Every structure is written in C-alpha cells, then in structure tokens.
Amino acid sequence: MSALPERGRPAADVLAELRDRRAGDLPTSGGRTLAYVYDSGVAGLDELAAAAHALGAPANALDPTAFPSLAAMENDLVAAAAGLVGGGAETVGTVTSGGTESCLLAVLAAREARPDVARPTMVLPATAHAAFHKAAHYFGVRAVPVPVNPVTFRADPAAMAAAVDGSTVLVVASAPSYAHGVVDPVAEIAETATTAGARLHVDACIGGWVLPYLRRLGVAVSDFGFTVPGVSSVSVDLHKYAYCPKGVSVLLHADAGLRRAQFFASADWPGYTMLNTTLQSTRSGGPVAAAWAVLRHLGDAGYLRLAEATLAAVRAIHDGIREIDGLRVLGDPDATLLALGTDGEVDFDLFTVADEMRVRGWYLQPQFAHGAAPVSLHLTVTAASHGGETWLLADLAAAVAAARAAGPVVVDDELAGLIAALDPEQLTGAQFRTLLAEAGLGADGGLPDRMAEVNALLAVSPPRLRERLLLEFLGMVFR
C-alpha cells in the first residue's frame, strides 16, 4: 500500500489503523516497560495531557510575541524546576525538547562563552550520558572521559581534577547517572571547575524532579543543584519524573549571563529576524501546554505522593533481587534506577534473562560492559511500578531459572577474535549488511523474537564496530 493513498480515508478508519500499528509496541502504561517511558499510574493524567496538547499544538513557540500564552507557560515550567533544584532570583531557564537538547545547549553555551580557547575540551565521568559525546561531535568540543570508582560507579573527583587543564570549558556531573542510578559528588567536582575557571553542568535530567522529593521523604540525597557553589547549569526533564508527555525538558542557568551564549540571532537576510533560544526554530506549543497542565493538576502534594510510591517500589525491588540466586544490584543507587548484574560465578546469561522477561510481558533494557561496569539490565522504576513488585520479582526469578536451564550464550573464541579484528572504517555497506544478517538482524529492519545471541555478538564487538553495526541497522529500519 502506498504511504500516501490516492483518496483520503475516513478519520475513524485512520485511527483504527493507527491503533492496530501501535498494538505491537511496548506498553507505555502499567509499569511493565522499565525503560523509555515514565508512568505515573494516575488515572486520567494521560487524557488531560492529550487534551492540553491538542489546545497548544497549533501555536508556535518560535515567537513569544505572537503566542504569549506559551511564553507564560514556559516561565511557569522553568520556575517550578528551578525551585526544586535550589534556583534563586537570578536563575533563568529554557524549555527544550528533551534531555539531549538541554545537554547539547549546555555544552554549546560553555564553548561559545570561551572564544579564547582554540581547542576546547569538556571533562566528564565515563558514566556521563552519551548526549555529551553527541555534543562533542556536533560542536567540536573534545570529550575527556574519566574512569569512575569501579565499585560505586560514582565520579572520581581527584581523577577529574587531574584531567582538567587550560582548555577545559565545561565539567560534567550526573544526578544520577543513567546506567547505575548513582549521584556523583557534585560539591567536590564543583570545586575543581571553579578553580579552573570552567563551567559545571549537572545532568539532573532524570533526578532533578524526583530527588528533591525523595529527600523530603527522608532519603539521604547529596546536594547537586544551585545550592552547590560553582554549579553553572542544571538540566531537568519534565517528561521523566514530572510525568509529562515526551518532548519537555528544562535547561537552567545560574544567571542570564551564563545562558546568553546559547541563544542564536540572525538579521542578515530579508525575512524576519530569527531569534532562537534553543536548537529548534519552530516549536509546537503542544508539549509545553501538556506539561503545564500536568504540573498544575498534580501539584507539589501530588508529586510527593508519586515519589513515595516510587520509593516504596524501588526498595521492594531492590530487596527482592537479593533473594534471587545469581543476581545483584550494581553499586548503591541513590534514586529510582537500578542496574542488575550477576553475583559471582553464574551459569546463565543476563541477555537471556531479558528475553525471558520479555516473554513474560516485561521490558528490561540490556546494557553492555564498559570499563569497570559489567553487563547489566537497566530498570527505570516509576510510581506505576508500585503494587506490581511481587509479580515483577516472581517473573524475574522464573526468568533467571529459565536462563539457567538454557545455559550461557557462548561466542566462539575464534569468532570473537575475528570480530575484534574488524576495522569499521574499512567495511563496505554490503559487508555490514552481511554481518548484520549473520548476527540475526534482517535486511528488512526486523528483529528476532529473542535477542540474547545478537546481544552476545554485539557485546564482544569493540564499541566503534558496535556503533557502526547498529547505525547500519538503523538505516535499514528507517528507509
């Protein structure tokens, strides 16, 4: 069937087809997808957000003078986020499309503010989000990753201080890191940045909205926001633990002077003077209106209740994992993210555990080994997880038992050696397609029902080769 039908179809038929296509996706509610989605479990919240999105979508946030309602709502979102992370009267912010754009802009602002540095660098822990490597690639800022503590997976302030030099325009810390859910020692890292005259960005995309509430519930959360001297900027995603629809993050700066370098203006053409606060020009007002409506509906007390439910779920899951032979939680998570690793010598494969959980209706995200971090399975725990912990843990125990019965996935040493020797820069597109087919990734962009063997092959591939393989596969998916 053509992507564009010759004649238009009735709206009811179009929506029915859309529902049919969505039926094969991971569930976005019910707490069973433990990555990518953030589910509050609050009845009616999604419907409220959808209605607000529909009201705001036709408006264009490109011009606040044409659509002042969007500017007012953005200011409300910024004020709410700033209040949670210790922002003061001088704190300013920008609403972006997501955490990656917020991090990109933080790097861009740091680079643009230092035109005196010919070859700028940014120092970041090895656990920092890949968005910073994307920013390095886009903006010509060399990333200097620093190994983290191999037990706690937290940034090592001394090692980071040793990596900072006269070319450093930005230092990065996470609150928390995505892979292991731990908060870096922001105060110590801030001292290094201040001494070097560099900016410090705290990536609190995940934790910025929930960590302050966990602190109010008695969790020992170290300071990470603007209450820490030397913090220049903080990113907070509202489409994570503020439970807003996708497409809303806030980048906060300690003052307007620090933010100014991220703005773009161009009057050197015959049209309107282009003024951009973000990487985008035209921006739908839908996500802004939806986020504003969700915040107004839930309020501070509502978010405290959601944080309490999430905390209860995290603790129950954390404790339950200890009872499953062969599993452990990596590090000592500070927030709502857990990384499951194996405990000692085991006779099963985590990738198979992920497959078995998928069969049982759960999605746990595989994470490859990197540096001191072993292979793990990622769990993003949300408020909707509360009440389902018993089923999750029972299915997890059953999945481990099934994986143990199946035995570990073994990649032949000779094959692993051949893979390790491949140079991704020398392979042709046809050769990549052959490798993908041998790995079980079809030319039609489809995936096998079980991914353990595919992931095992990817795990023994050097990172650059893995990147190219998956990019080639992405090219098959999006034709």
UniProtKB/TrEMBL annotation:
The keyword Lyase applies. The keyword Lyase applies. The modification N6-(pyridoxal phosphate)lysine is found at residue 240. One of its GO terms (molecular function) is aromatic-L-amino-acid decarboxylase activity. PANTHER family: PTHR42735, SPHINGOSINE-1-PHOSPHATE LYASE 1 (PTHR42735:SF6). Belongs to the group II decarboxylase family. Sphingosine-1-phosphate lyase subfamily. It comes from the Bacteria. This is Glutamate or tyrosine decarboxylase. Its cofactor is pyridoxal 5'-phosphate. GO terms for biological process: antibiotic biosynthetic process; carboxylic acid metabolic process. Keywords: Antibiotic biosynthesis, Lyase, Pyridoxal phosphate. It comes from Amycolatopsis arida.
